[in-house]
Amino acid sequence: MSTILKTYFTKQTQAAPLAVFRVFFGVMMFVSLIRFWLNGWIEKLYITPKFHFSYYGFEWIQPLGNYTYVLFAVCALSALLVAVGFKYRVAIIMFFLSFTYIELMDKTTYLNHYYFISCVSFLLLFLPANSYFSIDAKQKPEKASFYVPNWTIDSIKVMLVIVYLYAGLAKLNSDWLLKAMPLKIWLPSKYDIPFLGNLMQQEWMHYAFSWSGALYDLTIPFLLLYKRTRWFAFIVVIIFHVLTRVLFPIGMFPFIMIVSALVFFDASVHHKILQFISKIFKINKAEMDTKIKDVFFQKKKRISKIIITVFLVAQLLFPWRYLVYPGELFWTEEGYRFSWRVMLMEKAGYAQFKVVDGKTGKQFHVDNSDFLNSFQEKQMSFQPDFILEYAHYLGDHFASQGHENLEVYVESYVALNGRLSQPFIDPTVNLLQQKESFKHKTWILKFNDDIKGL
Amino acid sequence: MIKKTLFLLLIGMIVFACSQDESTAPEENNDAFDRKAMLVNWADNIIVPSYTAFNTEGNNLVSATNSFTQNPTVETLQQVRLTWIEANLAFQHVSMFEIGKAEALNFRNRVNVYPTNASEIESLIADGNYDFSLPSTIDAQGFPAMDYLINGLASSDEEIVAFYTTNGNAQNYKDYLNTVAETISTLTETVLNDWNNGYRDTFVNNTSSSASGSVDKLANDYVFYYEKALRAGKVGIPAGVFSNEPLPETVEAFYKEDISKQLALEALQATQDFFEGKKFNGTSKGESFKSYLAYLNTIKNGENLGNLITTQFGITKSNVEGLNTNFTVQIESDNSKMLATYNELQRNVILLKVDMLQAMDISVDYVDADGD
Questions:
Q1: For the range A61-65, what are the long-range contacts, defined as Cβ-Cβ under 8 Å and sequence gap of 24 or more?
Q2: At residue B23, does pLDDT exceed 60?
Q3: How confident is the model over A391-425, as pLDDT tens digits?
Q4: B30 touches chain A (CB under 8 A)
């Protein structure tokens, strides 16, 4: 076993796929960040709100006021440097840190896509993505190489396999497969899409989309890995992601996934892509190639291999953590995030907070719009950790106003996948006495239905 | 064969992807719910007729105040009061449609922010110089300001009339009252004219499913109105739901005293009628939220949400009917009944805002951002 591993880790392959991945990743990130900026979302999501929902343990990460723009500028600039491969190591560290910081500022905006970006940029920290077709390689030819270790490119493939596979496994539940939920809610509302609008009203279409979506996620990584089905798989990748882009407001993500899937192809395809890029930017690729044609990757850093192995194993295990929590995952969301549960359920809620003076019994309700923007209120209303954090914020706020013997209660209702709304949080529990932790939240009321499956 | 199909599919997808940002009218729908018919029913049978009726009342209000200020007597004052009540009732039928021109003008707030600011009104009258388009004057105009001027200046009608006759500042009082009435009327006319001159077509043709589509926007406006203006404004805030103590002075039409229940009932009925697509001043019903929910339920086979909401409207209505005609009296004598009414109103907030909007896949957040 150890000899097999040893020989595997010494194998090298052409660096072109890694270079293409680096270029596209950098460009996509740059475009995404600029788009985010131009949409006015920095202001709306990070500057205007008075209060931000933090991840447990990361409360110290907060938006930086107007300097948040600087943070985004640094992030976008480093993405561009990654794309051209200039001062790559510094650039990717800057990118990883600034991007991850941005994502940790407010969990209201949590998206699996953003988590994916953080994961990939973490991998890229340890990969020699600048050894070929980069400004670094041109400036320091002694460090350039035409080949890189196999495992470097394979680690990206493994990451993508994990994303698809776990997204597929998550769909193996009774709501998705047997009730075609939540697509039965989402698709009919797309009535105004040309040609498809009417089809979206048909029940069989909802089932067709549900089942083919699950099948797609479960099989596509393997179809991409297997050479004979690779082109077919890539066309399916394009169709799938373009279709999701048409149907749902998911921004840049489909395009990121499409270009990421290129990493599965042989180097010959990547050389063609690089040749194409070279033509546009008048780069003499042939000359660069001949100089380093026989150069293998020299630097051997054991630590990179270890870190990446540990990271990928952790990725494989982490999504299963929900199994240690009692209750329905979709309802409690304990272990829901960071697990590639993408577009999996439709959930909406309503949370009315009550502030009580424990001594006099005097009480009043809180108008959430005094403290939260509508996006925050929406996300807060069906996620228990948000509700708890907000309750504590309210407690602090009213304590600072001189209120005493404070108790905060919430009356909340949540509707999940088209079921009639049900009471969500125990209205008799003083949330100020509850602390955030990784333990099960006993004050979430029981979900009075059963969703079977993973 | 497979390759060919895939290729065609691919081309098709790309065409969709490229065209998806432009809002396109739906193809002829045979089996799908006709959103345009719903928008037409809303515009032609409910919204425009409601504004037309309210506009007439607004004109009556102006002529009544003019007659009163030209000849201030107890009789002409009482005439103003009657038209003020009629206009106020008619307003309850348009307040929920804060869309288009109404939204741009901040219509609901300009016409009906209460409690009104009596000291602000007095200082503006003393000053004789005011501009009602300034946000700072928002609580010194509209129906609540008129309420103060025709009901709240003194306890007897004779004393009130004296403000417009013997008072040293009588002319300023007259001018102020006229300006308030004219502003209500002008604002209403502006909104109505906009509906009649183009906006109606814009509205009914904007069948897009996006957040800027008419169905999405009006659904959000409607739910917002029900939650904030009806549930909180008319009942919750005065009953002290959002404060340590009840706030009876925040009741709608506070100075008139005995019409707060009537206004709440009118508003409740108007919201229910709109939910059910009932024609203004008629009995026939067209496409509505309720029929849309019924259609969606044929796909989903879930609970009949539309019926649940209608039932809850009924329960709420009988609760309101059990209250004192003057909510201030109700709050001071037995606030628990007021709170019970609030709870019934609240049940429909959940059904409308959580269940209905989820069923229709309408996003309640006004901040746009990417989804997963």
A1: A61/A101, A61/A104, A61/A105, A62/A105, A63/A105, A63/A106
A2: no
A3: 999 999 999 999 989 999 999 999 999 999 999 99
A4: yes
Q: For residues A308 and A152, what is the distance between their CA atoms, to the nearest angstrom?
A: 9
B361 vs A185, A350, A419: nearest CB: A185
Using CB atoms, pick whichever of A189, A206, A343 lies closest to residue B372.
A343
The Cα–Cα gap between B257 and B238 comes to: 13
Q: pLDDT tens for residues A256-297? A: 999 999 999 999 999 999 999 999 999 999 988 988 888 898
Q: Which of B26, B354, B365 sits opposite A192 (nearest CB)?
A: B26
- What average pLDDT score do residues B43-56 get? 98
Give pLDDT, residue A288.
87
Q: pLDDT, tens digit, for every residue of B219-251?
A: 999 999 999 999 999 999 999 999 989 999 999
> In angstroms, what separates the C-alpha of B367 from chain A's closest C-alpha?
6
Domain coordinates in residue numbering, chain A: 11-170+266-322, 348-454
* Chain A residue numbers touching B16 (CB-CB < 8 A): 193-196, 242-243, 246
Q: How far apart are CA B99 and CA B215, in angstroms?
A: 11
Residue A152, both tokens: 């470097």
Q: Report the gap between the CA of A286 and the closest CA in chain B (Å).
A: 33
DSSP three-state, residue A186: helix
Could you tell me whether strands A363-365 and A406-416 are parallel, antiparallel, or unpaired per DSSP bridges? unpaired
* pLDDT of B32: 72
In terms of residues, how long is chain B?
372
List the beta bridge partners of residue A276.
none
Indicate yes or no: CB of B20 within 8 angstroms of CB of A189: no
Chain B residue numbers touching A365 (CB-CB < 8 A) = 236, 241-242
Q: Is the pLDDT of residue B20 over 90?
A: no
Helix H or strand E segment including A351? strand A347-357
Mind telling me how many Å the CA of B120 is from chain A's nearest CA?
Answer: 25
SS3 B284: coil
Q: How many cross-chain Cβ pairs, A to B, lie less than 8 Å apart?
A: 164
Distance from C-alpha of A324 to C-alpha of A220, rounded to nearest angstrom: 29
- A420 and B302: CB-CB below 8 Å? yes
Contact (CB, 8 A) for B317 and B268: yes
Lookup result for tokens 């985004």:
A72
Q: Where are the alpha helices (DSSP H) in chain B?
A: 2-19, 35-40, 48-70, 74-91, 101-105, 107-112, 118-127, 142-147, 157-163, 170-194, 200-205, 214-224, 260-276, 289-300, 305-321, 327-349, 357-359
Q: Mean pLDDT across chain A, nearest whole number?
A: 95
Is A352–B13 a contact, with Cβ atoms under 8 angstroms apart? no
Q: B242 vs A243: CB contact, 8 Å cut-off?
A: no
Residues 239-298 of B with CB under 8 A from A: 240-245, 296
First to last CA, chain B: 34
The alpha helices in A39-87, defined as continuous H runs, are 41, 68-84
pLDDT of residue A6: 85
On the question of pLDDT at A89 being above 90, the answer is yes
Task: For residue range A350-395, list pLDDT tens digits in order.
Answer: 999 999 999 998 999 999 999 999 899 999 999 999 999 999 999 9
Nearest CA in chain B to A343: B372
**What gap in Å lies between CA A217 and CA A163, rounded to an integer?**
9
Looking at residue A192, its pLDDT comes to 85
Q: Does B339 reach chain A within 8 Å, measured CB to CB?
A: no
**Per the CB < 8 Å rule, is B350 touching A421?**
yes
Q: Any CB–CB contact under 8 A between B9 and chain A?
A: yes
pLDDT of residue A92: 98
Of A191, A364, A413, the CB nearest to B243: A364
Using pLDDT thresholds of 50, 70 and 90, give the confidence band for residue A15: very high
Q: Does the pLDDT of residue A440 top 60, yes or no? A: yes
